[in-house]
């Protein structure tokens, strides 16, 4: 499965459009990550635990998007857009959503 943020795949024209596909991942931020991220805010540096959670959520959303495209008979998804949102009371949850157009490319 080819996944691309571009509207086309160079040298591989779309022969069939299957429609819009999406994938979402919602993950809870745990209290220890919040604590360590707060310390990082004070002393500086990267919040590695949050980066890991964000990376995992993004991959889950893309995996779900690819699975939906495959169910439709597509072999690629083009024009992928990734969105990130904080949800829940006090921003306790992170949502990553991915959407794109499922296509068959030659």
UniProtKB/TrEMBL annotation:
It comes from Sphingosinicella microcystinivorans. This is UPF0145 protein DFR51_0069. It comes from the Bacteria. HAMAP family: UPF0145 (MF_00338). PANTHER family: UPF0145 PROTEIN YBJQ. Belongs to the UPF0145 family. Pfam families: YbjQ_1.
């Amino acid at each position: 499965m080819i996944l691309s943020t571009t509207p086309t795949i160079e040298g591989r024209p779309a022969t069939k459009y299957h429609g819009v596909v999406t994938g979402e991942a919602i993950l809870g931020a745990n209290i220890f990550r919040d604590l360590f991220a707060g310390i990082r805010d004070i002393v500086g540096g990267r919040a590695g635990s949050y980066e890991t959670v964000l990376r995992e959520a993004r991959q889950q959303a893309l995996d779900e998007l690819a699975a939906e495209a495959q169910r439709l008979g597509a072999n690629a998804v083009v024009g992928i857009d990734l969105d990130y949102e904080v949800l829940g009371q006090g921003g306790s949850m992170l949502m990553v959503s991915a959407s794109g157009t499922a296509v068959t490319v030659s």
